Amino acid sequence: MANIKSAKKRITVIENKTAQNKRVREHLKEALKDYDTALASGDLAEAEQKLRLAEKKLMKAASKNVIHKNAASRKVSALYRRLNAAKAE
Length: 89
Fold this sequence. Notes:
Blueprint: H1 5-41, H2 44-63, H3 69-88
Helix pairs in contact: 1-2, 2-3
């Protein structure tokens, strides 16, 4: 445990930020899972709606530096590719 006051504060700040980032990641996983289930069920209209929400959450997480912006873009691209492949079938 730290003895210096500023170091103690940094510990609490880091814990709060870690909890916040964890919540964002959990919401992100939930949005991606909803998209997967909508796509698996074959409901393309629902999947498109879930895709917009997932894309929004991914970009928001990237803007807050929870995930890297290139990782967010890569995931969005993969989601669109899967949706387009399902539409082509």
